[in-house]
Amino acid sequence: MQAAELRKKFLDFFESKGHKIVQSSSLIPDDPSVLLTTAGMQQFKKYYTGEANAKRDFGSLSTASIQKCFRTSDIDEVGDERHLTFFEMLGNFSFGGYFKEEAISYGYEFLAETLDLSIDYITVFDPEKVPEGDWRKGVPFDEESYDIWKKILPEEKIRREGTDNFWGPTGAEGPCGPTTEIYINGTEIWNIVFNQFYCDRDGNLASLKIQGVDTGMGFERLAMVAQNKENIFETDLFEPLLGILIESISEKQKRIIVDHARSVAFLISDGVLPSNKEAGYILRRLMRRLISYGTGKEKNLFELVVANYKSFYPELNLERILSVFNDENEKFARTLNKGLSELIKLGEIDAKTAFRLYESYGLPFEVIKEYDGGKKTRNLSREDFEEEFKKHQAISRAGAENKFGGHGLLLDTGELKAKDEEELKKVTRLHTATHLLQAALRKVLGQDVKQMGSDITVERTRFDFSFPRKLTPEEIKEVEDLVNKAIADGLEVKMEEMDIEEAKKSGALYFFKEKYPSKVKIYSAGNFSKELCGGPHVANTREVGKFAILKEEASSSGVRRIRGVVTP
């Protein structure tokens, strides 16, 4: 069964069970507590906490999705038979609707009946298996799940396990609950979590008022068992990519290359750009590792990734992927050979030396570690290297704080942040572009379009606006073209101050959620846009550069979201 058919069967199955099918959210999460989207439930967190209403937003208390995910913790493990950075997570979710009986029966029915797979065994939570001293020792045995499974499977296929079968904060406050896991061919395929309790700061448990179901099934693992393969890299998700690499490359390197190619394609298409911090730093690590292996097949790999995935993830943009990758390749190639030459001269390499090679020449940790089979780096660990990186960051932060009067950031308005002059220039261009974007949206979609929120980083702008449906490709292009025309026209950006009520009467746009002072500033870009704003802005729209819409998607019911970037 091919991957595309598997995805369809999963979504069709849960749609037939009354679930609302929800599109994957971006790899760039709204949740500030995580760097990238790591699980299918992340976009639904507010429905478990009661901050949002699933019935209102989805017309159902049950949803299902196939979510793009990325886990940075597995970067150093990639190359074996099962670890990945980018992966897809299949999940079904209930927000106060069905609970254990239905969730377990759905899991069994889909795997055993729809896909005709044989389940080896399942696990349920038993506190007797929890080590002494662990806070989960006092949690009751999940007898309910055990009894449900006894109606479905022979008792010898039901195993009792400890801490691995209880999800929740490690002794911290928050929702938590037992899990049941399904194993096929010795592989954990599906983890079904029951958010049943609330754990307070003292470790006391109380039943949640709204109990929920949160499941996760790794798509690559499902494809492996459904296609009867020995490992994930033999599935049709990877085999075509591996097939274009030359035989002389080791199996480990081949797996790293195809994993990183998929990840790079999806990260760039979701708006991440290479940088030395946060998600941009992760992207740069992956890209430079790809470049260092020097296969010369990167373009072919990206073309194949887009061809294989675009029907399900239309946001994949080959032109943008190649543009960003080639730019990084050009920059990195200048120093790569110098770095390798320096590496050859050195004896044993410790964390300080490795970080100096990274800082001076951009050599990725992985390239340094794997050089000459690891003979020079046998005592070098990722943990020690990261410790050196943190020391460097602390020194840099201290320098910035001294430079900017102890405040750390040169700019911090909540919506915009910049730590230095270079970042300030970038967010200023993006800020003005966001004003032009709102004006263009209203011209294309109508005057009912209103701002619902925005967030601007050094790498991109994110703009939420009221609109009842997905934009067509033609509308997206028209909006993008209008913004770029306003930029090319070289409109002068002017600021004037006036009383708030006078400003509102002037026709200037303002964000209804914002609390404005009695005296406000209005920024106008020619006759194209006019908004209440605190700045900063460019003096002329030509300074913005070229604007591109990376993605248009749903943010919540009746609210759409656009992510955009500017280039020189």
Describe the structure.
By secondary structure, this protein is α+β, with helices and mostly antiparallel strands. The chain has three domains: 3-234, BirA Bifunctional Protein, domain 2; 248-401, no CATH class; 418-567, Threonyl-tRNA Synthetase, Chain A, domain 2 (2-Layer Sandwich), CATH 3.30.980. The protein contains 17 helices and 18 strands. The strands form four sheets. Strands 1, 2, 3, 4, 5, 6, 7, 8 and 9 form a nine-stranded mixed β-sheet that branches. The protein has a four-stranded antiparallel β-sheet with strand order 12-13-18-17, covered by helices on one side. A three-stranded antiparallel β-sheet has the order 14-15-16. The longest helix is centred in the middle third of the chain and has 28 residues, at 318-345.
Topology:
Elements: H1 3-16, E1 20-22, H2 45-49, H3 54-58, E2 62-70, E3 86-95, H4 100-114, E4 121-125, H5 143-150, E5 158-161, E6 166-167, E7 174-184, E8 187-199, E9 205-218, H6 219-226, H7 239-242, H8 251-269, H9 278-293, H10 298-309, H11 318-345, H12 351-361, H13 365-370, H14 382-403, E10 411-412, E11 417-418, H15 421-445, E12 451-456, E13 461-466, H16 473-488, E14 493-499, H17 500-505, E15 519-525, E16 529-532, E17 546-556, E18 559-567
Parallel strand pairs: 1-2, 4-5
Antiparallel strand pairs: 2-3, 3-9, 4-7, 6-7, 7-8, 8-9, 10-11, 12-13, 13-18, 14-15, 15-16, 17-18
Helix pairs in contact: 4-5, 8-9, 8-10, 8-11, 9-11, 11-12, 12-14, 15-16
